[in-house]
Amino acid sequence: SAPRFRALLDLCKRRGFLFPSAEIHGGLRGAYDYGPLGAELKRNIANEWWSYSVYQRSDVVGLDTSIITPHNVLKASGHVDEFTDALVDCLLSKERFRPDKAPKLTVVETPKDGDLDLKIPIMAPDKTIAKQWVTTIAEQLVPGAVVSRHKSDIFLHAERVVEPVEGSNAEGKIFLKRTDPNMQPITISYNGYVAPGSNSPFLTASRPFDLMFKTFLDPIDPIDRVIQTTLSHPPSSTTTVRSAVDTVLRPSMVYLRPETAQGVFINYHNVLRTMKSRPPFGIAQMGKSFRNEIRLEHAIFRTPEFEQLELEYFVPPWESSYWFGYWRQERFAWWLRYANDPARFRTRDHTSDELAHYAQGCMDIEYEFPWGWGEVEGVAHRGDYDLKQHARATGERLDFVDESPGVSESVPAGAIALETVPKMEDGWPVRYVPHVVESSCGLNRSMLAYLFDAFDEVPEETGSRIVMRLHPRLAPVKCAVIPLIPRPELMELVGLVAGSLRRERVNTVVEAQNLKIGKRYYRHDEIGTPWCVTVDFESVKDGKVTIRERDSGEQMRVRWEEVREIIRDRLNT
Ligand code: ATP
């Protein structure tokens, strides 16, 4: 799996899909910049989602809400109290177990009878720190041990510090060899979690860790405020320091939203009023979310700053099971539309102990990445939890007054048990808080999944070459217009073809480098360009050009004026 991942990351960097952020300043772990091709690919996925969710439906509208979110909103939603992960302290490095700060310890081999042979990969911000950690861990395991030296009963050495796998990490390894058969077995934790019954020397019990990024809406630097307060009223204990700091900072504290959904819930009544919406209806939103993830992993799979494509679909309570089923199918089908290998996509229902406290049901859509199955989207039946929470916290009525309740027109006959639907004799109108079915898709993870899905290494006589079999609507460049050789007499027609495509808003490049035509085709195969249009010397005489198709390699000769229509039709099928 690692070579495939490395090859893809290498391609992404070499061809301008993805760059480690701030690389010339040493990089920042977990931060990535999207290059010219990555920005297009990401935008194309987002546009496909928006078009499918909003433009192709009559019952969904879009919204774009603030990233900066007041404390009250996230207190009401439950995030302030519940949105935490388990954090463990690493006793060895005396550091908190954070990927940017502390070693990541992993069991590679558990001790069996005989030799103890442990390998401990360490992810550190840079090689120097990785080396320091290797030494620290080695010394803590065997007090007084010096890396790469013999100790009385344990042979211990630190292996090379290997090159970064991703971002600006370095990875170190320690091998411990037990020579004393009486030595107690040691179990190292996996990602900070100790398997039950093990006796790891590393880790403290877990405690909650706030996943949200706090910031301050304050013209005065919050640090200055804290300094002023503590200088004027010196606190006497940790508890009083905390409460003094809280008092000073709380009024200006805001959060970067950890999901886009809450912006939708607090605008539910605005949309209802202005759009005259009536359940079932949906609100779609795409945008950035932020999570102070303890573990950052697999390039853009898990980063602190990411983008979500979320749809909150509000339904009458008696229709909620039907709509949950509906969106599960719809969303999975959406993913498969762009897939080359559908077998690498699957759905997985949450078991009852996995369900978030607010959810009545949840299904993940997963992709089989080289390191295993990973969630790319969640579809959840959130009941009336969110609207009720915000209604309770604000005193606003977030219910819907239904003058003519019944089964919605868009629900097929027989899909809902009639005894659950309110009847005339129950009293008119009916007031209810709609239930919500949510689909929450990660845009960056979608991009990574579709990049892996498209990544094809085609064997050649000498080695192999990469063809990115991206769906044409996702491909960053749709069409490359290529003069057979870059001579002025061909360039006029090249310009006409490219211009006709650009007027159709088809992202087109002119590939006039002084390279063999085959090389230029391959360069475009490598970034997933579905069509190349070649202009040769015949073209100047008869006005005909050649369209080459990426996947089949098929070539067709057409009049240059037809190119735009052919490509447009193919993009729309
Ligand atoms: P995970 O279990 O992987 O942490 P999650 O269940 O917390 O994900 P959700 O809260 O359901 O994720 O968010 C919906 C989607 O947002 C996920 O399916 C994923 O695609 C994306 N997502 C969540 N966290 C991140 C992140 N840190 N980096 C990139 N994408 C993310």
Automatic annotation (TrEMBL):
GO cellular component: cytoplasm
GO terms, molecular function: glycine-tRNA ligase activity
Gene3D superfamilies: Anticodon-binding domain, Bira Bifunctional Protein, Domain 2
Entry-linked SUPFAM superfamilies: Class II aaRS ABD-related, Class II aaRS and biotin synthetases
One Pfam short name: HGTP_anticodon
Entry annotated with the keyword Aminoacyl-tRNA synthetase: yes
Name this polypeptide is given: Glycyl-tRNA synthetase
